[in-house]
Write a structure and sequence with these properties.
By secondary structure, the protein is α+β, with helices and mostly antiparallel strands. It is 24% helix and 32% strand. The longest helix is centred in the last third of the chain and has 19 residues. The two termini are 16 Å apart.
């Protein structure tokens, strides 16, 4: 429902490495994408709105450098869900 409201359901590109990019329709512009920083070994969810030259928001999905016993007790799916929810709230409040 949220993706349809913003027209993202028709503009999905999935890369061979599993990352993806969602593009907002031309009248809104911008994109949402995932990336992996090989040096830092971190997976990110990022968003940029039309007309901006820098990333509007970046949300950590997973940090592969942290040991399994670090202080964050959430599972990986919970961390991903929290990051997505935070990004959805940000987009909803900006449009």
């Amino acid at each position: 429902e949220w993706m349809e409201r913003y027209g993202l359901n028709e503009h999905l590109t999935i890369q061979k490495d599993g990352t993806f990019e969602l593009s907002f329709p031309n009248h809104k512009g911008g994109k949402i994408w995932t990336s992996y920083d090989a040096k830092e070994k971190k997976h990110y969810l990022s968003i940029m709105f039309k007309g901006q030259t820098v990333t509007t928001g970046q949300y950590l999905l997973q940090d592969n450098m942290k040991p399994a016993w670090h202080s964050d007790k959430r599972s990986t799916p919970e961390k991903v869900q929290d990051a997505v929810d935070e990004m959805v709230n940000m987009v909803s409040s900006c449009t």
